[in-house]
Amino acid sequence: MTKTYVAVDIGASSGRLMLSQLKNGKMVLTEMHRFKNGFTLKNGHDRWDIDHIIKEILLGLQKIKRAGFSKVSLGIDTWAVDYVLVGKDGNKLDDPISYRDKRTTNAIKELTAKVSKGQIYQKTGIQFLDFNTLYQLFEENKELLAQTDKIMMIPDYIGYVLTGKAVLETTNASTTQMLSLREGLFDQNLLQEVNVRPDQFPKLVDAGTPLGKLKREEFQSYDLPDTDVITVATHDTASAVVGTPGIGHHWAYISSGTWSLLGTELNVPENGPDAYKENYTNEWGAYGTYRFLKNIMGLWMVQCVKRDLNDKYSFSELAQLASKTKPFSQFININDERFVNPKNMIQEIQAYCQETGQRVPKTPGEIAMAIYSNLALFYAYEIQKLNHIIGYQIDTLNIVGGGSNVALLNQLTSTVAGIDVYAGPSEATAIGNLAVQMITRSAVANVSAARQIIKDSFVIKHFKPEQGKYLGTLDDYINFLHTANRGGAI
Ligand code: LFR
């Protein structure tokens, strides 16, 4: 019987259940269920509604059963760094707080007064983002932490609710900034700094480990398939990289969704002085690889603009409007912290342009174009830095994820970076999740075989640099960033 695989892929703004089967050496993908996600203010903090997410997953699985699939394999991936505190009775103590909550604003400064930044980077190789689990735990309610039996990362917690089995998967665990890069275990000293004991975490497992069966008896109000859960690369970005069919030997990727994660796959971590200076991270990838990358603000900015316009325009309409305006009409350091969670993104962008003495974008098209132009420039600048740190030239860029559908952004990126861009698949995260399941079930031999299947199964569009266009723009942008306080990336 043809095996059926389901990817539960949940991002900050939406979740989906994608079903796949291998047919004639190709991956066939069908979206079975999609739902909105987001955080809301509750008990003083921006929190995820984790019970709602789990309910939507069960509804999706019910649809799958009713569509005639009675036995499936399932993997779960979500965004990283956030966690659920679980008490001794096995239940969550509260809803998880979002990484965009403001509680960690000063945490890096406070914690690194005790253990220096250099030491933390040396130990973990992880970039400094003030929302890393390390800083969230540092700011955690001490009473709740004392009552906590297990600290579970979001996808592991979902897996635990579904199966009763608790693990800590390493691609996601690495984003805590608490795993020792060399030893692959939690750094005792960092744990002590945040008052956490090693036994408060479940046991570490690698991507591609069977977890257990869905406890159908506990969810009797749903009509569910017989489901074997596999722990995949549970960090969405790790799944996206597995799902990226790189071209050639020196390829970089952008996993383009709420965030743009720009980097390359390494077999050996790179945590030397240049990587430290540029705040590059060595997140663990599936199968012993490292995701050497940088977080860039990404389509979050467009998502907020869409929301600020009361959802009057779809993403493709915004891109359409943008394409009618002039690119590079203003320079913006899109990684400025002020864009992490502003009250109103449009006003924040306008204020930034006003304060820096630039033309203020007004129409929805101009605002969207300001974001796309500066994303393209930021990407191009980061590729230069990446080349410098790794010591060889990146020659192709694979853009995957929802953002790979924005042809305008792909073309601008290719031209200002002077590099061939391959765009797609847009569902790389779900595809990477499915690929790890297929490898675990021995239906596919390994990651290179999976990537060949992905190349053969999905449309990948090629964008070439437009010669002679926007000459000197990137240099002007870099000069702009280096002028007073504009270069400080988060
Ligand atoms: C992307 C992502 C990034 C991570 C950020 C916060 O969805 O997982 O990799 O830095 O969200 O968790």
Give a short overview.
This protein is of the alpha/beta class and about 500 residues long. The chain contains 18 helices and 19 strands.
Basic shape: globular
Q: Percent of residues in helical segments?
A: 25-40%
CATH architecture of the largest domain: 2-Layer Sandwich
Low-confidence stretches: none
- CATH topology group of the largest domain: Nucleotidyltransferase, domain 5
Please give the CATH class of the largest domain.
Alpha Beta
Query: CATH H level of the largest domain: which superfamily?
Result: ATPase, nucleotide binding domain
Q: Would you count the extended β strands for me?
A: 19
Strand content: 15-25%
**Based on the structure, what is the oligomeric state of the protein chains?**
single chain
Task: Give the strand order, joined by hyphens, for the main sheet.
Answer: 15-16-14-13-17-18-19
The whole-angstrom Rg is 22 Å
Distance linking N and C termini: 50 Å
Main β-sheet description: 7 strands, mixed
Cofactor: Mg(2+)
EC number: 2.7.1.5
Catalytic activity: L-rhamnulose + ATP = L-rhamnulose 1-phosphate + ADP + H(+)
Protein name: Rhamnulokinase
Give the secondary structure arrangement, pairings included.
Layout: E1 5-10, E2 14-23, E3 26-36, E4 39-42, E5 45-48, H1 50-66, E6 71-78, E7 83-87, H2 107-111, H3 117-124, H4 133-138, H5 142-147, E8 148-153, H6 154-163, E9 167-169, H7 170-173, H8 188-193, E10 203-205, E11 209-213, E12 226-231, H9 236-242, E13 251-256, E14 260-266, H10 273-277, E15 281-284, E16 290-296, H11 300-308, H12 315-323, H13 345-355, H14 364-390, E17 396-400, H15 407-417, E18 420-423, H16 428-440, H17 447-457, E19 461-463, H18 473-482
Parallel strand pairs: 1-6, 6-12, 9-10, 13-17, 17-18
Antiparallel strand pairs: 1-2, 2-3, 4-5, 7-8, 11-12, 13-14, 14-16, 15-16, 18-19
Helix pairs in contact: 9-16, 12-14, 14-15
This protein binds beta-L-fructofuranose.
